Amino acid sequence: MKQRVAIARALAMEPKVLLMDEPFAALDALTRRKMQEELVALWREVRFTVVFVTHSIEEALLIGSRILVLSPHPGRVKAEINVGHLGFADPGLPAFAKLAQRIHALLFADRVETENTAGASHG
Fold this sequence. Notes:
By secondary structure, the protein is of the alpha+beta class.
């Protein structure tokens, strides 16, 4: 409930950009999923920009339309993935699983995607 109030308070200010740093990390799985759904529903209604930091690949795919994969220290962009039509998708879709695997591989790879590979088809 505290998270809902904090988000509502932030949105009441009608920000152009909302920064959310691991906002659902301390929640149980069911509450976390509900909050993700509520955030997406709010976004669809109001269309504000959200910069959402998460360590969860699934959460990034559920919430994001553009995902930046960062390297560990120092934090640099390893890849930029424009999820596009897949954003807010069902985790049961094959394209969702394929993209989750791609992100996982990027996280543990020593390489950085170039513009040529970052825009590659993922559907």
